[in-house]
Amino acid sequence: MTPLERKFHRAAVKNKKERLEGIHNEVCLGCAADLRLGKEDDHMIGRKHGDLVWPLCKPCHRKRSELQREEPPATDTPRNLLGIIGRWLLSVAEYFELMRDTFRRFGEYLIELARQGYGAELTLP
After folding, report:
1. Beta-carbon-side half-sphere exposure of residue 60 (alpha carbons within 13 Å)
2. Rounded to whole angstroms, how far apart are CA atoms 51 and 53?
């Protein structure tokens, strides 16, 4: 495959992915920003430890990378189950730290809507 053919192929794949349902309205997991302007895939438990990625905007990805630098170094046996679970737990805690301000903003917004009378007809199942 020539470089030009490779470029056309990549553009076609990207175009197809962007037309898939749900892809066009992806939001950052940290701040809920629209990711059409810029998305970075964040390796959930670190690039060295796993392949699962979650979408973040550039500012949240930068904050997340700083949090990952504070994590303890890898153990001598990287496939140790306790070490893997520990990395997942640290990762989830860091994502919640990124989401804290967004959760607060959404919560305050919903409470203000309730003060205005919205949702009075709704009940919990």
Report:
1. 29
2. 6
Q: What is the DSSP letter of 21?
A: T
Quick one: residue 117, left, alpha or beta (phi over 0 = left, psi -120 to 50 = alpha)? left
pLDDT per residue over 60-97, tens digit each? 999 999 998 999 988 888 788 898 899 899 999 999 99
Contact 78, 49 (CB under 8 A): yes
Tell how many helices (H) and how many strands (E) occur in the chain.
3, 2
Q: Residue 50, exposed/middle/buried by CB under 10 A (0-12, 13-18, 19+)?
A: middle
Question: 57-79 b/e with 16+ CB inside 10 Å = b?
Answer: beebbebbeeebeeeeeeeeeee
pLDDT tens per residue across span 1-28: 888 888 888 877 776 655 555 555 788 9
For residue 99, give both structure tokens.
């989401």
